[in-house]
Amino acid sequence: MDEKLWAEIDEKEPIPEHIRERMEQLRARRRTVPEDRLIKRPTMIEGIRKAGIVNTGVLDEVAKHIKAGMTTQQIDDIVVEYTHAHGGICAPYGFEGYPKSVCTSINEEVCHGIPSKLRKIHDGDIINVDATTIVDGYYADASRMFMIGNVSEQRRKLVEDTKKCLELGIAAAQPWAHIGDIGYAIAKFAHKQGYSVVRELGGHGVGCDFHEDPFVAHVGTKGKGMVLVPGMVITIEPMINLGKAGVVIDPYNDWTIYTADRRDSAQWEHTILITETGNEILTY
User: Fold this and answer.
1) What is the pLDDT of residue 2?
2) Which residues of 100-132 are buried (b: 16+ CB within 10 A; e: fewer)?
3) Model-level pTM?
4) How far apart are CA 63 and CA 265, in angstroms?
5) Rounded Cα gap, residues 280 and 233, in angstroms
6) How far is CA 259 from the centre of its chain?
7) Which of 202, 212, 175, 177 lies closest to 6, judged by CA?
């Protein structure tokens, strides 16, 4: 977001005094408290909410059409057409050189799979489609898993358990709780099911930019990490591996992340707003 615009909103819509007082109390107790600019104001929240509506619509549109035999480029085409038709911009396109408008990660691809006319989706695949949409300068980010045709029981369970990890992470993301509470809830469940959790990648702040502080790890310790203050907007996006947690990057495209042991991985992502009474899902 433009610095001048941010300053104007900050002046008109300052952080509520009771929230600022509590932040100062926590800071005095040496707790990690977010910078003021990470606390979204009502105008910003409304903008992110609008972006979230379009972003959710993007993934709904993909859900209507995704099937065995189509290429991942066709998914990219659906995302571009829907986003532009609804007044949005595909945030991934051109971001740090990324060549497409969405990420499509299949089976052992953890994230950042690049759509291609040569890559087809096959019966039995699991695929993550990760979309980020800009509307009027505000960002919303979410991803979903899709199970294509006759998926094995092992893959089905991985996808469903990863969604449960996301749900547990969101449940833990309460006002005045900590980032570590989110990772603790996710990892506790994932490890109990026999999975591993990717550590190198995680969720993040979002809304006025594509990636903002804080980093939201999906492995954590209760009561540790940044305090979740009402007004913060973050993504929670656990990447859960069937095998070991290690990952590697594709040496040819420098984007796609694979599991090091080439076993399957799954991911779900929502953008959420921390409120004074809990949280609100802004896109899913």
Assistant:
1) 87
2) bbbbbbbbbbbbbbbbeeeeebeeebbbbbbbb
3) 0.97
4) 20
5) 9
6) 19
7) 212
Q: Give Cβ neighbours of residue 185 (< 8 Å, ≥ 6 apart).
A: 168, 169, 171, 172
Q: Which residues pair with 150 in a beta bridge?
A: none
CA–CA dist 265, 219 (Å, integer): 16
Cα distance between residue 235 and residue 140, in whole Å:
9
- Spacing of C-alpha 49 from chain mean position: 15
Residue at 81: amino acid letter: E
The count of other CB atoms within 10 Å of the CB of residue 219 is: 20
Measure the CA–CA gap between 156 and 82, rounded to whole angstroms: 28
> How much is the average pLDDT of 9-33?
97
What type of residue sits at position 194? G
- CA 252 to CA 233: how far, in whole Å? 34
Which residues is 79 bridged to in the sheet?
none
Calpha distance 87→54 (Å, rounded): 8
- Give the C-alpha distances (Å, rounded to integers) separating 71 from 3, 24, 266: 40, 52, 19
Using CA atoms, how far apart are residues 241 and 117, in angstroms rounded to an integer? 27
Residue type, 175: P
Tallying the residues shown for the chain, one arrives at: 284
List pLDDT tens digits, range 117-138. 999 999 999 999 999 999 999 9
pLDDT, the chain, mean: 98
pLDDT band at 153 (very low <50, low <70, confident <90, very high): very high
- CA nearest neighbour of 267 among 117, 185, 116, 163: 163
Do residues 132 and 164 touch, judged by C-beta distance below 8 A?
Answer: no
